[in-house]
TrEMBL record:
Species for this entry: Marinobacter lipolyticus SM19
Pfam families: DUF354 (PF04007)
PANTHER family assigned to the protein according to its UniProt record, in alphabetical order: DUF354 DOMAIN-CONTAINING PROTEIN, DUF354 DOMAIN-CONTAINING PROTEIN-RELATED
InterPro entries xref list: DUF354
Protein name: DUF354 domain-containing protein
Length: 344
């Protein structure tokens, strides 16, 4: 059996790998997880009882801060690699495992879906043993790459692995008496967010005010909210947010990952940001479950919200079935790919 190192640097990476790790363990492989202090990453790992080693804390943003973390985390991962001696390392984004893998002659499997992370990709793809992306990926890829029919979010929100619990959703904020709307705003500190600006506070207030006339509004925010918006902030457990999301009427936000999560759960999504993603484009053009809005104005967002509220739940269900019928078991695929690269 193989020794496999999984490097987890973001909350979404916890979700992506949790089922793959279980499958690999069931197949008899030895797994070591390394982690990073960013948002609720460590808490999610602890909630899921995943043993891990914290190697660094996320930088505050900017090229200098990211470069400092790159150096310190690579050194820490190098030391872990020399002790554990993995047959293969894997990560989403994968800059650390790709670079350290090249230095230590360790196979690296990089999963990614974000085309506009141009700096990270330039520092990762040339060093990776293989890069795996969804079929919808629109950016440059190295020769050592492959595509699959699916999305990252299917690795943890596919019905085979996730069953939304209504009672848990209610305990964590879902309204029982009216429709619930989920709004997400981000901090724009990630490497793929360089030079990107998001929603203004005024735009957030307008969206919350409009949705508040239609039902309950929950705001999930990476940055602290102003006092007048605090009553809307998500106060539930981070590990329960997907249960809440699954029963919402609509998602509106500037997180592409959460937009895709909503779509995979059968909840229509508005992804409102200046930059796009291949998977969001596909979810709009092929399945009609998402709308990309790049005009970050009050009118554009409210017009989009009003249009979605006219689409019947039955129509949404039909579109969602088409998506699920057209995609693969991403957990089995990722576990098989990691296994294959471990024996290279």
């Amino acid at each position: 059996m193989s020794r496999i190192l999984i490097d987890i640097c973001h909350p979404a990476h916890v979700h992506f790998f949790k089922n793959t790790i279980s499958v690999l363990k069931e197949r008899g492989h030895e797994i070591l997880v390394t982690s990073r202090e960013k948002e609720v990453t460590v808490k999610l790992l602890e909630d899921m009882d995943v043993p891990h080693y914290v190697l660094s804390t996320a930088s505050k943003g900017g090229v200098v801060g990211m470069l400092k973390e790159l150096i310190t985390r690579n050194f820490a991962l190098y030391k872990v690699n020399r002790r554990f001696k993995p047959d293969v390392m894997s990560a989403i984004g994968g800059i650390f495992v790709a670079q350290v893998g090249r230095i230590t002659n360790t196979s690296s499997v990089v999963f990614y879906d974000t085309e506009n992370a141009t700096l990270q990709n330039a520092l990762t793809y040339p060093f990776a043993s293989i890069v795996s992306v969804p079929r919808s990926y629109e950016g440059w890829l190295p020769k050592r790459s492959e595509r699959y029919n699916g999305y990252h979010e299917l690795s943890y929100l596919h019905p085979d692995y996730f069953k939304p619990k209504y009672a848990e959703a209610v305990v964590n904020g879902l309204s029982q008496s009216e429709e619930t709307f989920l709004v997400r705003v981000v901090s724009w500190n990630a490497n793929h967010d360089l030079n990107e600006k998001g929603w203004s506070i005024e735009l957030l207030r307008s969206v919350v005010s409009f949705l508040g006339m239609k039902g309950k509004v929950i705001v999930s925010s990476e940055a602290p909210l102003p006092d007048d918006l605090l009553p809307y902030s998500y106060k539930g457990s981070p590990s329960s947010l997907h249960h809440v999301m699954a029963f919402c009427r609509l998602y509106v936000g500037e997180s592409a990952t959460m937009a895709s999560e909503s779509v995979v759960l059968g909840v229509p999504a508005i992804y409102a940001a200046h930059t796009g993603r291949g998977y969001c484009n596909e979810q709009e053009s092929l399945y009609g479950l998402l709308q990309n809005v790049k005009d970050l104005s009050e009118k554009a967002l409210i017009d989009s919200i009003m249009a979605w509220l006219l689409v019947s739940p039955e129509e949404i269900l039909s579109r969602h079935k088409a998506l699920m019928d057209d995609t693969i078991n991403v957990v089995e695929y990722s576990a098989n790919l990691i296994e294959r690269m471990a024996v290279k």
